[in-house]
């Protein structure tokens, strides 16, 4: 969203870009139709009112459940929307291919959950007002659905990119990338858990049947979630 639109081609009011927040709200319900794109020119720094407006916009956007990325990365996901191929076999499984950089699909039927044992390339899901969103961990996946919530560990939410996800008996092996501080939320973990990434050890905070790992800086690389055996 270009700040020129909200400042009458930089004729004023110079605080006008703060009104992009209303646009973001309108385009986010009942489901997000466009990304929360913050776009402005260098001369926004020449007027105090414009700088204050930018601070307002950034505070609003950073307070939303977002996945920050560069516009070039968003363009790759948009291309994946057009190249995506879906097919259903005779037993009802969904075959997903050619997603490119796209890693999210929506299920409108809330009575269906991913079968985490039978599915492949599915890391988990997130329920929102707009529907149930599947997290893919690869450009090719197999989705088998069930009518029961999964009891296996699975991804709920992450403000970044999951490049791979392999859940084993004692640990989850994954590769992740985030452009800013965020949280990784995983459901159905057991016991005391920690995220190992590089030289960092991030303990989990238990939130009911979910565990949240707070990443306090941009992070990228292979990681491992390990939990104790206590129930």
The biggest sheet amounts to:
8 strands, antiparallel
- Poorly predicted runs of 5 or more residues: none
In total, the number of strands is 16
How many helices in DSSP terms? 4
How do the strands of the widest beta sheet line up side by side? 9-12-15-14-13-16-11-10
Q: Which descriptor suits the 3D outline?
A: globular
Write down the overall mean pLDDT: 94
Determine Rg (CA atoms, Å): 20 Å
Q: What's the SSE pattern? A: HHHHEEEEEEEEEEEEEEEE
Can you walk me through this structure?
This protein is α+β, with helices and mostly antiparallel strands and about 230 residues long. Helices cover about 15% and strands about 35% of the residues. It contains 4 helices and 16 strands. The chain has an 8-stranded antiparallel sheet with strand order 9-12-15-14-13-16-11-10, with no helix packed on it. Strands 1-2-7 form a 3-stranded antiparallel sheet, with no helix packed on it. Strands 3-6-5 form a 3-stranded antiparallel sheet, with no helix packed on it. A hairpin with a 2-residue loop joins strand 5 and strand 6. The termini are far apart. The model has no long low-confidence stretch (mean pLDDT about 95).
């Amino acid at each position: 969203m270009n700040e020129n639109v909200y400042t009458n081609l930089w004729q004023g009011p110079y605080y006008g870009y703060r009104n992009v927040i209303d646009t973001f709200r309108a385009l986010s319900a009942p489901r997000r139709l466009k990304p929360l794109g913050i776009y402005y020119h260098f001369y926004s720094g020449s007027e105090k009112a414009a700088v204050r407006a930018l601070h307002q916009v950034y505070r609003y956007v950073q307070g939303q459940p977002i996945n920050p990325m560069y516009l070039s990365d968003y363009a790759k996901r948009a291309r994946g929307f057009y190249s995506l191929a879906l097919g259903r076999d005779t037993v009802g499984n969904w075959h997903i291919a050619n997603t490119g950089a796209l890693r999210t699909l929506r299920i409108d039927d809330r009575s269906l959950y991913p079968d985490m044992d039978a599915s492949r390339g599915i890391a988990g899901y997130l329920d929102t007002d707009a529907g149930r969103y599947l997290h893919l961990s690869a450009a090719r996946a197999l989705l088998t659905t069930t009518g029961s919530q999964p009891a296996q560990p699975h991804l709920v939410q992450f403000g970044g990119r999951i490049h791979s996800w392999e859940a084993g008996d004692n640990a989850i092996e994954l590769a992740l990338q985030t452009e800013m501080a965020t949280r990784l939320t995983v459901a159905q973990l057991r016991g005391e858990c920690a995220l190992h990434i590089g030289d960092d050890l991030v303990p989990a905070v238990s939130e009911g049947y979910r565990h949240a790992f707070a990443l306090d800086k941009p992070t990228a690389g292979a990681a491992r979630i390990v939990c104790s055996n206590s129930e």
